[in-house]
Amino acid sequence: MGQKGKKAVFEIFLERGFIEQVTDEERITELLDGRVTCYIGFDPTASSFHVGNLVPIMSLAHMQRNGHRPIALVGGGTGLVGDPSGKDVMRQILTYEEINKNAEAQKKQFSKFLDFSEDRALLLNNADWLTKLNYIDFLRDIGVHFSVNRMLATESIKTRLETGLSFIEFNYQLLQAYDFWHLFKHYDCLIQMGGSDQWGNIIAGIDLIRRLEGKQAYGVTFPLIMTADGRKMGKTERGAVWLDPERTSPYDYYQFWINTDDRDVGRFLALFTFLPMEEVREYRKLEGAEIRKAKEVLAFEATKIVHGEEEATKAKNASKVLFSKEAGDDASIPTTSIDVEKIWKGIPVFKLFELTALCSSGSEARRLIEQGGGYLNGKRLEDPGLVITIDDFKGSSTIQLTAGKKKFHRIKLLDKNI
Known about the structure:
Elements (H helix, E strand, L loop, with lengths): L8 H8 L4 E2 L2 H7 L5 E6 L11 H12 L3 E6 L21 H15 L11 E4 L1 H4 L4 H7 L6 H6 L1 H7 L5 H4 L1 H16 L1 E7 L3 H15 L4 E5 L12 E2 L2 E2 L9 H9 L6 H8 L4 H8 L6 H17 L1 H15 L11 E5 H6 L1 E2 H7 L6 H9 L3 E3 L2 E2 L6 E2 L9 E6 L3 E8 L4
Parallel strand pairs: 2-3, 2-5, 3-4, 5-6, 9-15
Antiparallel strand pairs: 1-6, 7-8, 10-13, 11-12, 11-14, 14-15
């Protein structure tokens, strides 16, 4: 995947919007002109990554595509402690079994972005060394190099002191610094990367390496990605958008991207796809109704990376059917089958919105329809209590429900006698 003759990866990071802070830009730029090993840690607090994790994962992919060796570090050890960075309250402490299960699930998702063959990338778990540490030895050999005053001045620690910080969380910075030293010592890892909330932890690791080895390591952080309307990237009214197809279907994943705010499309094309920047800049020029084309490209490319080209194509075709307000037969459209006998008896339409999870409750479905946001086969509904019967299918086996302008679901008749 290396791209010889192309611009240096640091320049790629800059023009694509990945860089928030660096410890030594001149030296890092020099290092990235050669071949270097870098790492990012990911604590397995869930069984899947979500869209909010994509910036660091994409950064590792860019590093590999430009000839460097990335280390994806699964935090099987640090995950047992919990990172206080970016959190107002203490994270729930997971069991060893939960952490290990989540770690295994995340390993599979990394392979969508990185090639681990022939030492081109490494997948490590810090439980392999952190869980073997002797506490007294750790305090004497590592803890002695940390200033409590300096740790208290770290932004993530300062923020949490106002709401309460447990001693176990206070130790987290030491463990992450130890990780960086361990990877520096055993894998010649010179650069740690991470989100902007990791700056203090990264600096602590660089300082530990200098004290223990008398050598210099480096750090890069990425900005916290916010949408144009001020929301944290990847957060929706329905919760997180997951990379696991069992938690967020490829169709819903595609829909998340195609519903991107017009103001974010160009920025997200640069961050969340591998399209050349020359092409991204062309899409940034589109205005008005033409922006839909850029959104389709963003949705297809982002979905292809995570779910593969076949699933991305299915989602794209299903989206076109729904956008053109046709009922269609595309298998990718979210569909709920319902016994034809129930339809013969009749079902209030608001209950169908609840049944299909277009609304989380019957009362929410009633409000949606009363406020003009519910549609049946493209026609606005007025009465939440409207009873849907076989007559509404008009000789077809399906009807289509729509919530707002962007959430679709198909009801399909299931005849047990056939």
